[in-house]
Amino acid sequence: KAPSCRHDKHQPEKDHPLTEPSATFLLFGATGDLARRMIFPSLYNLLADGLLPDDFMIVASGRSEMSDDAF
Predict the structure, then answer these.
(1) Which residue from 23, 40, 56, 62 lies 20 to 30 Å from 47 (Cα-Cα)?
(2) What is the C-alpha separation between 65 and 24, in angstroms, rounded?
(3) What SS3 class is residue 46?
(4) Is the model's pLDDT at 6 over the cut of 70?
(5) Is there a contact between 19 and 53 (Cβ–Cβ < 8 Å)?
(6) Backbone angles phi, psi at 8, to 5 degrees
(7) Best CA proximity match to 23, nearest among 47, 65, 52
(8) Residue 58: Cβ-neighbour burial (10 angstroms; 0-12, 13-18, 19+)
(9) 67/34 Cα distance (integer angstroms)
(10) Do residues 68 and 28 lie in contact, with contact meaning Cβ atoms separated by under 8 Å?
(11) Predicted pLDDT of residue 19
(12) Residue 31 near residue 64, CB atoms below 8 Å
């Protein structure tokens, strides 16, 4: 029998400060066409459907110079 991965059965303790899962989405190429047409709308839909954790973060980077408002 193969050993199981420690993370498969690990359950955080109730009093542990990191009991809630969190996620950070790193996006390289955020100013590109694929991000604009597919990735950002998909992330929006996941958020609208309540499928992302409350503390979900997006960190995006792109080569094109763009103001916050233009982005």
Answers:
(1) 62
(2) 23
(3) helix
(4) no
(5) no
(6) -65, -40
(7) 52
(8) middle
(9) 19
(10) no
(11) 54
(12) yes
* Tokens standing for residue 68: 């916050």
End-to-end CA distance of the chain: 52
**pLDDT tens digits for range 42-66:** 999 999 999 988 889 999 999 988 8
pLDDT at 1 > cutoff 90: no
pLDDT in tens, 17-27: 555 667 899 99
Residue with token string 């190429």: 29
User: Rounded to 5 degrees, what are φ and ψ at 55?
Assistant: -100, 25
Q: Is the backbone of residue 52 left (phi > 0), alpha (psi -120 to 50) or beta?
A: beta
